[in-house]
Design goal:
- The protein is mainly alpha-helical and about 110 residues long.
- The chain has one domain (about 5-80).
- It contains 3 helices and no strands.
- The chain is rod-shaped and about 120 Å long.
- Keywords: Coiled coil.
Amino acid sequence: MSTATFQHDFEPCLARLGTTPEEVYALDDIETLRQLIIKKERERQAIANDLEVAARIGLVISETNEAIQIKELDQARRELSKFRKEMDGLSAQLNDMASEMVNSKETERF
């Protein structure tokens, strides 16, 4: 396997760990390289875990916001229904008053 092919196959693995070929080639012993790879893999795992936690928190926030919006809409519907009933009642009272006024004027004519 040529050096270019090896480097071509090797670079995606390094990129996954967030390191460069230069960083690896600068090391003189295998133990240091092993420690670097372990450190980078732990960092990668920590980032992946943080992203998963952030995604879960985002989902909980989204679901909570949706629940709050549903409650607010229900409350608004109840208040609107109550308001409409009150307006219907007032409208009926006004109609009754208007009828009484018409009846009163008709009675006064006779």
